[in-house]
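hiii so um. not sure if this is the right channel but i have a protein structure encoded as C-alpha cells and i wanna go backwards to a sequence. like what aa goes where. can anyone help
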C-alpha cells in the first residue's frame, strides 16, 4: 500500500486519515502540535507553511491531502502561505494534491450550485478560497503538479464540534430537549455534507487520474432546512419536538463584538438567509461514492454526541 499524507486533523482530516488507515495505507498526519500515535497513523508535529520540512515529510507519498485551515478570522493572511507551501511540496514530490474546498468561492447564487459556476465571490473569504484553487489548477494545467479539489457544504456528523452549525451549539440542547437558535432562516433549504462522505470522496479522487485538474462536489444528501434537521435529530434522540428560533440580528451583532468567529460569519450570512443547495450529480455520474442516507447520518451523529457528553461527564 501507499503512503498518504494528511494536513490537519479536524473532522475531515481525522476521518480521511482513519479511512485510509482502515484501507491498509500508510498514513502520516501533519499538524502544528502533533498527537499521540494511533493504529495505522503516524502523527508528526510540523508547521505546514515550512515547505522544505513539509517536502521531506511528504517525499514518497502518493497523495497529499489539504484538510487543514487557518483560524477562520485569519484566512486572508494565513491561507496564502499555507497554500503556497502545499503547491511547492506537491511539485517537489510528485504527490497528488487533494484539496478540501468549500462553496464560498461561488458567492451568492440563484439555484443549485454546480462546479460549472464561476468563482465570483467578492467577499474576502470567498476570494481567498477561490484563489487557492485557481493557482493550484493553473500549475496542474502547466504540468507542474497534479491537483484536484473536492468541495463540501457545511460539515455534519460525528467529530464535528465547534465549527459546525448543527454541532456544539445545537446537539447538547437537542439531547436535553431544549430549544436551539439558528444563525439565519431556520426554514430555508440547506445542504449538509456528512463528514464520512467527505473523507470517502477525498480518498476516491486521489486514486482517480481522470478526476484530477478540476473541482468536484462531495456527494451530499438532498437539502434540508435547519428546522428539519433538528426535528430529525430530536426524534432520533427521543427528546423532540424541539423549538428552533432564529437568532435575532441584534443579539448576533452584540455577540459578534466578543467572538471573532461570529464577526467573520457576517460575510456568509447569505448561506442561511436563502436556499443554499449543492448539486453533486457530476461526481455521482463519474465515481462510486454516494451520500449516506440522512437517517443513518442522524443516528450516528446522535450516538457520537451522547458518547462525547457522557465521556466528558456532562448529562445529555
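sure thing!! here u go:
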Amino acid at each position: 500500500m501507499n503512503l498518504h499524507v494528511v494536513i490537519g486533523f479536524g473532522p475531515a482530516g481525522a476521518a480521511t486519515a482513519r479511512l485510509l488507515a482502515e484501507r491498509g495505507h500508510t498514513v502520516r498526519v501533519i499538524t502544528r502540535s502533533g498527537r499521540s500515535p494511533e493504529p495505522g497513523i503516524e502523527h508528526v508535529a510540523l508547521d505546514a507553511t515550512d515547505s522544505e520540512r513539509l517536502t521531506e515529510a511528504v517525499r514518497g507519498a502518493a497523495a497529499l491531502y489539504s484538510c487543514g485551515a487557518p483560524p477562520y478570522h485569519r484566512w486572508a493572511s494565513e491561507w496564502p502561505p499555507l497554500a503556497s507551501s502545499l503547491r511547492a511540496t506537491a511539485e517537489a514530490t510528485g504527490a497528488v494534491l487533494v484539496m478540501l474546498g468549500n462553496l464560498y468561492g461561488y458567492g451568492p447564487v440563484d439555484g443549485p450550485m454546480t462546479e460549472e459556476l464561476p468563482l465570483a465571490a467578492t467577499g474576502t473569504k470567498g476570494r481567498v478560497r477561490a484563489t487557492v484553487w485557481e493557482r493550484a489548477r493553473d500549475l496542474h494545467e502547466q504540468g507542474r503538479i497534479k491537483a484536484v479539489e473536492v468541495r463540501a457544504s457545511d460539515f455534519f456528523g460525528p467529530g464535528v464540534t465547534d465549527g459546525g452549525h448543527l454541532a456544539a451549539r445545537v446537539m447538547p440542547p437537542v439531547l436535553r430537549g431544549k430549544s436551539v437558535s439558528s444563525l439565519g432562516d431556520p426554514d430555508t433549504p440547506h445542504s449538509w455534507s456528512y463528514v464520512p462522505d467527505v473523507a470517502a470522496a477525498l480518498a476516491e479522487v486521489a486514486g482517480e487520474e481522470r478526476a484530477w485538474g478540476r473541482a468536484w462536489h462531495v456527494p451530499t444528501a438532498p437539502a434540508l432546512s435547519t428546522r428539519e434537521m433538528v426535528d430529525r435529530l430530536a426524534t432520533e434522540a427521543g427528546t423532540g419536538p424541539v423549538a428552533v428560533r432564529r437568532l435575532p440580528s441584534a443579539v448576533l451583532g452584540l455577540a459578534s463584538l466578543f467572538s471573532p468567529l461570529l464577526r467573520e460569519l457576517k460575510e456568509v450570512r447569505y448561506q442561511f438567509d436563502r436556499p443554499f443547495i449543492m448539486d453533486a450529480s457530476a461526481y455521482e455520474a463519474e465515481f462510486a461514492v454516494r451520500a449516506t442516507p440522512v437517517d443513518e447520518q442522524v443516528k450516528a451523529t446522535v450516538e457520537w454526541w451522547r458518547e462525547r457528553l457522557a465521556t466528558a461527564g456532562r448529562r445529555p
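oh and The chain is about 40% helix and 15% strand.
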